[in-house]
Structure formats: C-alpha cells, structure tokens
Specification:
about 100 residues; alpha+beta; Metal Transport, Frataxin, Chain A; 6-stranded antiparallel beta sheet; 2 helices
C-alpha cells in the first residue's frame, strides 16, 4: 500500500470513528490533533488514543487494556495479532473501558 492509499483508508476509518463519537448520547470528549492522533476521554476519566502510524501503514490504538496495531488487508483494518476488525475491536474496547455501548 502506498502512502496515498494509506491516507485514504485511514481518513475513512477516522471519519467513521468521529461520526460514531459525535452521535453518542454519552459523555465522551474527543479531539483529532494534527498528524492524525485522536484522543478520547470518557466520563470515567479514562483515555483512549487512536493514531495513524504512516511509516508502518497501520492504525494504532492505545487503550486501558493494552496497545493494538491494525493493518489494512485490502478490505478492512484488522488487528495484526488476532485478525479482529478495527471497528469491532473499538466497540469491545470502549465497552470494557468506559462501559459504553457504542457500535462502531
């Protein structure tokens, strides 16, 4: 995957994540910083960080339960260890960390 394809797929993933967070009826604060770093702060005070790692062509997630790397497989962003899709992982991680039932 070249840099332009990475940016296009990552942009789409981040836009989807932001749309879910914006539509949430829950107390969730988030900010997308320059360079593609999305910091999410939940009502319980915990944080989650999602960022683009352009050199590795991956999306990285730092959650309370650990760090996860997702790579584009031609159809979806999948965890490099488990194969779990990014959006399914975010749904599970947000539920576990903040007790929120957000469907990514």
């Amino acid at each position: 995957m070249d840099e332009r394809d990475f940016a296009r797929h990552a942009d789409a993933a981040f836009a989807h994540i932001e749309a879910v967070l914006e539509a949430a009826d829950e107390d969730v604060e988030f900010e997308l910083a320059p360079g593609g770093v999305l910091e999410i702060v939940f009502a319980n005070g915990s944080k989650m960080v999602i960022n683009r790692h352009a050199i590795a062509r991956e999306i990285w997630v730092a959650a309370k339960s650990g760090g996860f790397h997702f790579r584009w497989n031609g159809e979806d962003w999948v965890d490099t260890r488990s194969g779990e899709p990014l959006m399914a992982a975010l749904t599970r991680l947000v539920q576990a960390q903040a007790g929120l039932a957000l469907a990514f």
